Amino acid sequence: MGFSSRKWAEIISKFASRVYFFIIMLQLPLFRFPCRIGICQTPIDVTVCQLIASETFPQVVIKALLYPGAILKFFTQGTTIPSHDQLLNSYKSNIKEPPPTTDLKHLEVIAGSYLCVAGALLGLHKRGRMSLFGLALVVWGVLTEISSTGKHGIDLSEDGVCIYPKMMIAIAVTFCSMRRDLRKLIRICKFKSIAFRKLKNDSKFKCH
After folding, report:
1. Which PANTHER family match (predicted)?
2. Which DSSP string do the residues of 74-120 spell out, in sequence order?
3. 192 vs 19: CA distance, rounded Å
4. What's the rounded Cα separation, in Å, for the pair 208 and 179?
5. How many CB atoms within 10 Å of residue 68?
């Protein structure tokens, strides 16, 4: 007996939310954008820069956000795993005080990054649209920056602003994590499949 649309939606959304969690927490590069440490490539980078600068969150929270990415670099790039304090100090030493209007100018990317990180954490328990809204804001902010600088397409220079192909994967995974919307999509696909099979059988019957 096959699974119902509700069951399939639950299975797929749960799997997708965990994939998205690892994409964010392991700090896979999704974009390239100027920030307080120079160039940020992940929502974690942008979020951590703001948290350190604002000094409103406990350092243990910031360390917990940074460390998974450091572990991934150890396995993929052969770098040494720094201590929690070394990792945090490395970020702090690279942070520069931007002009007063910089954060306001990049508000979409900053707010979107916050939502991306919060959505990844909350999505393990209650899946919703927060992550998708966050990614949409980040993409909008990056595209706006590209448009304002007059550089179209992908800028591959060291400090160029761009969106990496992994962003499309993150968006697709985030959409699949939204159970209600996914359930509706599965229902539509099932309806079309049943209608197609019925039409096919009717055609065979008429031929005979």
Report:
1. TAIL FIBER, TRANSMEMBRANE PROTEIN
2. HHHH------HHHHHHHHHHH-----TTHHHHTHHHHHHHHHHHHHH
3. 29
4. 43
5. 16
